Amino acid sequence: MSTAKPFKRILLTGAAGGLGKVLRERIKPWADVIRLSDISPIGEAQDGEEIVQCDLADKTAVHALMKDVDLVLHFGGISTENNFEAIMAANIQGTYNIYEAVHLAGVKRVIFASSNHVVGYYKTTDYINAEMPMRPDGMYGVSKCFGESLSRYYYDRFGIETVCIRIGSSFPEPINKRMMVTYFSYNDLVELLRCAAFTPRVGHTISFGVSNNPASWWDNRYASHLGFQAKDSSAAFAHKFPDSGDYPAADDITTIYQGGAFLLTGPQYKS
Amino acid sequence: MSTAKPFKRILLTGAAGGLGKVLRERIKPWADVIRLSDISPIGEAQDGEEIVQCDLADKTAVHALMKDVDLVLHFGGISTENNFEAIMAANIQGTYNIYEAVHLAGVKRVIFASSNHVVGYYKTTDYINAEMPMRPDGMYGVSKCFGESLSRYYYDRFGIETVCIRIGSSFPEPINKRMMVTYFSYNDLVELLRCAAFTPRVGHTISFGVSNNPASWWDNRYASHLGFQAKDSSAAFAHKFPDSGDYPAADDITTIYQGGAFLLTGPQYKS
Amino acid sequence: MSTAKPFKRILLTGAAGGLGKVLRERIKPWADVIRLSDISPIGEAQDGEEIVQCDLADKTAVHALMKDVDLVLHFGGISTENNFEAIMAANIQGTYNIYEAVHLAGVKRVIFASSNHVVGYYKTTDYINAEMPMRPDGMYGVSKCFGESLSRYYYDRFGIETVCIRIGSSFPEPINKRMMVTYFSYNDLVELLRCAAFTPRVGHTISFGVSNNPASWWDNRYASHLGFQAKDSSAAFAHKFPDSGDYPAADDITTIYQGGAFLLTGPQYKS
Amino acid sequence: MSTAKPFKRILLTGAAGGLGKVLRERIKPWADVIRLSDISPIGEAQDGEEIVQCDLADKTAVHALMKDVDLVLHFGGISTENNFEAIMAANIQGTYNIYEAVHLAGVKRVIFASSNHVVGYYKTTDYINAEMPMRPDGMYGVSKCFGESLSRYYYDRFGIETVCIRIGSSFPEPINKRMMVTYFSYNDLVELLRCAAFTPRVGHTISFGVSNNPASWWDNRYASHLGFQAKDSSAAFAHKFPDSGDYPAADDITTIYQGGAFLLTGPQYKS
Amino acid sequence: MSTAKPFKRILLTGAAGGLGKVLRERIKPWADVIRLSDISPIGEAQDGEEIVQCDLADKTAVHALMKDVDLVLHFGGISTENNFEAIMAANIQGTYNIYEAVHLAGVKRVIFASSNHVVGYYKTTDYINAEMPMRPDGMYGVSKCFGESLSRYYYDRFGIETVCIRIGSSFPEPINKRMMVTYFSYNDLVELLRCAAFTPRVGHTISFGVSNNPASWWDNRYASHLGFQAKDSSAAFAHKFPDSGDYPAADDITTIYQGGAFLLTGPQYKS
Amino acid sequence: MSTAKPFKRILLTGAAGGLGKVLRERIKPWADVIRLSDISPIGEAQDGEEIVQCDLADKTAVHALMKDVDLVLHFGGISTENNFEAIMAANIQGTYNIYEAVHLAGVKRVIFASSNHVVGYYKTTDYINAEMPMRPDGMYGVSKCFGESLSRYYYDRFGIETVCIRIGSSFPEPINKRMMVTYFSYNDLVELLRCAAFTPRVGHTISFGVSNNPASWWDNRYASHLGFQAKDSSAAFAHKFPDSGDYPAADDITTIYQGGAFLLTGPQYKS
């Protein structure tokens, strides 16, 4: 009948994280049941929800997580720079576990929360697209490169479709000048996910997740088939970052490279 | 005086066809006389019209058709898949006849109704432009490849300008999900023809004929000089094709390739 | 036993033509039987040969020609500029007939004698490859564009593999200065055919057929998988075309464009 | 306090010229002091202005001009075709003097008024970007090529940032059909300058200066990081240039090439 | 004195592996000491050698391994398809350990044994280069993608240079038809390593490791600065793989894709 | 009769310079008369020579120089870094004078001694071609950029053909490690000039002038029509620059960029 939702069950990993919480409500119209998973507590299941606390590094648990799932929104794992072993467990072993489970369970499509940090070592004067070589800006970024390569394999070998979303800065509003370029509003995030979920064919698509901001580093041409059209813009917040003639120092790598302050958080500070 | 129209006489071939009928009225302001031609009956000539019933495969008739013509809108021929011999007569012999007549009559410009089916074997996840190799999806598409190559020759050799329009789906509205990508409204069609007719120099230009739809397979960068800006969008019809999680089968070539159902109508079904 | 040849039966069309005669002897080691076909008389069948006189425009005859064939070397048709109707019958209808017959007979691969005249309207200062748009220099060239488009379709739709060879100037030796660039020795032609016939996968490949001459207009990168390595060079004939400071006139199109004197033989001289 | 302006002192060369007069008022909010320079008289200094009459070919004067400057808008020199010696003094020696002075004074950024005439010999059917080879259309254009190369050197060697703006036709409104493509409104000019002045990093950027006109020859992708979004369009003036079927002559180079009538003003008419 | 070798100490990981054994002797002239490491026993140290048995997944051991090293040839880890956890320990954790140790020890350059299996899902009719997206053909390939991304990061962030060598088939001779394309003789391997070790600047270079074979899938243009010129060719072994007209089945993925039989060994066969 | 030389009179500017002296003898077979010009004394005219001492900055003298000339080899001007005013007089005013004289005298072709220093700010790990943006490494390089732009204009506007040769290091042999990449033997220089002089059409061609050295930074694909095939290689001198593991410092710009030590000689050292 007309009240049927498009999917029976969507799995959202990382549901207790910043974006996970945003998505929890927004994607409800897409499936009869949203299965929410995180390594941290998520709270009570509401109507149309299932809650499964799960460590993605636990293969058996991840395989159980996938039962009766139609679509996966893989937002789980570590989302900032951290020590490599932690990132490896969560983002490398974890993402591998997701894909093996997807494969065994016969799920047809994954939306993978990749990151702009897979290309953070391009310059802020570069204009790049999804077919150019990756230039990660830390261990977090390297782990997302792994996820993109892995998902490409599962598509080429098994036909499992993935949309990798290289998420910019998805926050309520830009909080520094860099985010005037990388801002990705929650509304635009949800709209891009909607396009990624419902376009009949996506193959293996890489899309930059970014609003319609005035300045742009990313050319989304290779995701044109998704039909995503950003409606928000950082221009609405321009008054918070007034024009300044106080140029950054010539050797300030946080403004030379797209990755920004992320570049200062790499492994060298661990020892 | 100010009421003079830009052209004295425009020839519209295929005037009895689907698009021919649409254009008949719309292009009236462009010329003192519109000469309407088709192999089928067209009806009565109205004010400012001339009617010439003509088989494009008839060389003598086509040469006569061209007398005193300033501009040709070549929409004649067969516009769906058919047996090769019929397509060859109408679209290959016919288009050759048109160009030879254009050359002999000294007509300076042709607008050629090519088709998206010259690239129908690109994938629905590809984003292509007019300089990429053609990938026709049937005999109809192959005949349009011929027309594009032929018109290139007449431009390189004789300076006869052509705008090849790779028409998407030009109907009153999209009638299936594929047309959400390929929809080309009548208003946008007429506007693109206007740009093609009145841009001072067009050389040999290939333009995809498509409205400003959310999803896009075609990059019109090499036709930027035409100044065409689509005003309509298939988004207005999105409610007719609600989001669905029921993905097409992995081997359903009508959703893998841009050509859609056309791919199933090729020569193999004739024997 | 060890004396078995790779193929049971190869069909060579155009066997009475210039290159057909060269190939007749050279390809004997490749198949138990070489079936030789031409519209003109070919002479007596020798050991390991079959002779079938046949007009390629005759569909029924072409279908009969294909019986028990493993591989087609399609060198038939008209190989110089001519009136369009003759070219259409031989090269357009004829090539279509070949491919339909190939399809119905289940032949897996065709080697198609295309021509450098599909790109004759590039400049002699251009360096082009097989993915760039075609620029034919006459009706003959346009008919070869058709053959390339058609064969692409049969590969995309039915998996029938084709190697299109854009033959340069395949003569005993260069007879003018242009041929110092386009010379394609008989030995190199046979070697390229050998590569095209025996590479395990060729898909739809376009290869320029040219020897290892000092000057080059054509970049064969997209045929690298064929393993063709030219062994001859026009340099051996350089003494016949001594250096000259007598530059061609600025408007001499036969030296401006790659097609050379072919450019002067187009349809405009027929009327 | 909140009334502080972004810069202490901006130098505007060419302040008495057509665009200099426009900018004089518009850029006042950007700096405490605007230093105005020209070889011609500029009039009285108004509040927040300094006037320095100066020949850019005079090295000593140019070095003095740069004292205490934060940002340079280099609009000085000759802006139309002229005899080479005059252009060399003003645009070649002059621009060199500016950059040496910038280097010695420690100025960090220059906005250089380059011109679309550095690419005027591309065709009006071409769509070009900033990474394609330059094709100047006269001595003026050649001198601007020099300025672009020179500024590139000062960036690569000394880290002095430059935005080269290839200005289209910056006039109150389009006055011929070519300007329907090249029109660059004063508002859009000022906005592009604002982006060029205040983007934190620009490196060496080349941006086409053009409004959001329907037809376009220039792809500004490599300046995407500037965040410039044109708000005006020549479409507002379309009624002044009604559609016409009176095509230009086939050999009319002013419509074949982007440079327009500039092409007719080169050095050959001097002797 | 003149007998000094270029390096004091080179570390070769994977010294007990197939290629490690080959290299052990060949690289002796490059350093006073070759430190040989493997997880398996390597045998007795000979003159100018040090032997350290070491599991690359053991961080502490790897850091000790790097003491006083000038150059690393990282050939260790798992070199065939295997279960993911084993590959992750050896190739992901292991390569990370190597780079962290390199960084802490101040080693300036690494030569990383990557693999053609990072691009194994390109077609055998494709011609690819090092700037095109990776298409791994199994977990082994994915782990090598990780190594390439990781080494890019260490170069961008710390200036540690790496040459990634996408090794083809480095065996005494080709043992199947695919290896006629991918063959990489031991001599050519050593020569490429020599170029990678001694070119003054390599930055982060990706080079395909392949001999000068007739057919080629890989364009090494982006490694041109290394000066590597292969001297061997699989042509010497052509007689072992005679021409055959027995084409592979249309759906035989081991001949459709460059990865060959590797494609059949992925994770799906583990469960 | 058979002893006629291809040209009547070739003008060689810069005849007293390093390469001028080499060429003086080598090009004798190409013309009845070689007119030798330099600002410095050249010595006695020998048989078949004319000597004209001339400052290229002297317009009248340059125009006289061009009388009865068929071909110009423009090697004159300043060939190392120098103060800008000297470079401007010799290389900018001087080259302009040459082209105006060429235009007025009706000379059809110029071979222009450009320099690899027009691209000296590319990295030594880059592989570049003639269509990529110029990156000069000093005032000398900037002046050669000017010459390339100027000659492009004279070709586009007047049809005067030029081959710009971006000369590498043309010396008797490599004298440092950089020259192992940039070495251009005298024999190869003469052969490239021969190709540039005698190819029937060259339009405006940019060719890197470099021998067939093992390592390469320059892709000469856009000069393929010249037919130049280098016969010498720096490999013959490899023993003079033995392999060394003593890597240059990370911030040593003379090895980071292609321009080498030239980068240290720019204008900043003048003040």
UniProtKB/TrEMBL annotation, chains A, B, C, D, E, F:
Keywords: NAD, Oxidoreductase
Gene3D superfamilies: NAD(P)-binding Rossmann-like Domain (3.40.50.720)
Ranges of residues in domain NAD-dependent epimerase/dehydratase: 10-169
InterPro entries, alphabetized: Epimerase_deHydtase, NAD(P)-bd_dom_sf
Pfam family, one: Epimerase
Similarity field: Belongs to the NAD(P)-dependent epimerase/dehydratase family.
Protein name: NAD(P)-dependent oxidoreductase
